[in-house]
Write a structure and sequence with these properties.
Heat Shock Protein 90; binds magnesium ion; 5-stranded mixed beta sheet; binds adenosine-5'-diphosphate; about 30% helix; 9-stranded mixed beta sheet; DNA mismatch repair protein S5 domain-containing protein
Length: about 350
C-alpha cells in the first residue's frame, strides 16, 4: 500500500484565481452587458448601440459615443483593479459614477475574447486591441499585441465573443439563448428608461425588427411607452420626495389605480445604478394592494439618490444588492408619499364621474 504524501497547502495559480473571481462577477451574459452599459454611460455617451448573438454567449457588442480611452491607457484597462474612477479605498464613500472597482473589463477578458476599439475626440484615428487573461493579446499568433491604428468614430466599441469559452461547465449551464436575451433586453430596458438624454438601441443579430430603440430626446414617459407599453405610459403618476434627515431624494413614475399588471414591474435605481430590492418590492406591493383589484400589480420606476456615505455598494461583487442606512424609514416615507398620491387621483375620479 502506498502512503499518501501529506497534503500541502499551495497557492492557486494566478490565472485560476482570476478565472474564479471573474466567474463570481459575470455569471450570465447580462452581467457583462450591465457593466458595459454602466461604463458607456460613465464615459458621457449620448448613444448606446447593443448587438447580441445567441443570447450574448456568442457575441455581445456595445458601441458608444463617449469620451473614449486614451491610447496610452489601452494596455491596462483589463488588469484587475485598474480604473480611472477611484484612487483609494477612501474614495468609495464619495464615488458618483457607476463603476468603481475596475474589475469588469478584467473579468470579461478572463472568460471571453475581448476586443476594444476606441477613439478620443482629439485623436486622429481610432485604436483597436484584443485582450486575453487581463492582458493585451495578439489578434493572431505571431502578431504584435500592441493596439493598432484604424478608422473609427469618437467613442468606444467593446466586443465580447464566446463568453465562458474556457469554462465549459458554465457554458453548458445555459439552456436557452432566448432566455438570456430576455434578461439582456430587460436590463437594457431599465437603463433606457432611466438614462435621460441617451439614445438606446438593442438588437438581436440577424433580426430584422428594431428590438429596443429609444431616441435621445425621448422623455421618461416616452421611454416607458417604447420599452413597456402605452397601457402603462398613459396611467402614470409622477412623484418626487426628498428628506434631509435621512439624506435622500427620490423621483419616479408609478402607475395609478387604473393600471393593474400581472407582475410587479420595479425599475429601481440607487445612485443611478440598476439594483434589486425585495424590501422595496414588498412594500410597494403592500401599498398598492388597497388600490388594485385582487392580484393586480403596479408598475414602479423609482430613482433613489442617497448620500453615498450612507450606501454600502461594496457588499457583493455583482453589486446587485445594495444596502443603505435607515432603509426601513426611507421605504416607509416613499410608500406614504405614493399612497397619498394614489388617493388623490382616486377622489378626483369619483368626483369627475359624479359631476
Ligand atoms: P470601472 O468602471 O470600475 O472603472 P472597468 O473594468 O469597468 O472598471 O473599466 C476600467 C476602465 O476602462 C474605466 O475606469 C474606464 O477608464 C475605461 N473604460 C471602460 N469602458 C469604457 C468606455 N465605454 N468608454 C470610456 N472608457 C471606458
Ligand atoms: Mg465599470
Amino acid at each position: 500500500d502506498q502512503i499518501e504524501a501529506p497534503r500541502r497547502i499551495r497557492a492557486l495559480h494566478e490565472d485560476v484565481v482570476n478565472k474564479i473571481a471573474a466567474g463570481e462577477i459575470i455569471v450570465a451574459p447580462v452581467h457583462a452587458l450591465k457593466e458595459l452599459i454602466e461604463n458607456a454611460v460613465d464615459a458621457g455617451s449620448t448613444s448606446l448601440e447593443i448587438l447580441v448573438k445567441d443570447g450574448g454567449l456568442k457575441l455581445l457588442q456595445i458601441t458608444d459615443n463617449g469620451c473614449g480611452i486614451n491610447k496610452d491607457d489601452m494596455a491596462i484597462p483589463c488588469e484587475r483593479f485598474t480604473t480611472s474612477k477611484l484612487k483609494a479605498f477612501e474614495d468609495l464613500t464619495s464615488i458618483g459614477t457607476y463603476g468603481f472597482r475596475g474589475e469588469a473589463l478584467a473579468s470579461i477578458s478572463h472568460t471571453a475574447h475581448l476586443t476594444v476599439t476606441t477613439k478620443m475626440a482629439d485623436s486622429s484615428c481610432a485604436w483597436k486591441a484584443q485582450y486575453a487573461g487581463g492582458k493585451l493579446a495578439p489578434a493572431k499568433p505571431g502578431q504584435s499585441a500592441d493596439p493598432k491604428a484604424c478608422a473609427g468614430r469618437q467613442g468606444t466599441q467593446i466586443t465580447v465573443e464566446d463568453l465562458f469559452y474556457n469554462v465549459p461547465t458554465r457554458r453548458r449551464a445555459f439552456r436557452s439563448a432566448s432566455e438570456e436575451y430576455a434578461k439582456i433586453a430587460d436590463q437594457v430596458g431599465r437603463y433606457a428608461v432611466h438614462c435621460k438624454g441617451v439614445a438606446f438601441q438593442c438588437k438581436k443579430h440577424g433580426d430584422a425588427g428594431a428590438g429596443i430603440a429609444v431616441p435621445a430626446t425621448a422623455t421618461v414617459k416616452d421611454r416607458i411607452r417604447i420599452v413597456h407599453s402605452s397601457a402603462i405610459a398613459n396611467e402614470l403618476i409622477a412623484f418626487e420626495l426628498s428628506n434631509a434627515q435621512y439624506g435622500f431624494k427620490t423621483e419616479g413614475l408609478v402607475s395609478n389605480a387604473n393600471y393593474s399588471g400581472k407582475r410587479t414591474a420595479l425599475l429601481l435605481f440607487i445612485n443611478h445604478r440598476s439594483v434589486e430590492s425585495n424590501a422595496i418590492k414588498r412594500a410597494v406591493e403592500q401599498t398598492y394592494s388597497t388600490f388594485l383589484p385582487k392580484g393586480g400589480k403596479p408598475f414602479v420606476y423609482l430613482s433613489l439618490e442617497i448620500d453615498p456615505a450612507r450606501v454600502d455598494v461594496n457588499v457583493h461583487p455583482t453589486k446587485r444588492e445594495v444596502n443603505f442606512l435607515n432603509e426601513e424609514e426611507i421605504i416607509e416615507l416613499i410608500c406614504d408619499d405614493i399612497r397619498t398620491r394614489l388617493g388623490k387621483v382616486d377622489t378626483s375620479r369619483t368626483f369627475m364621474t359624479q359631476s
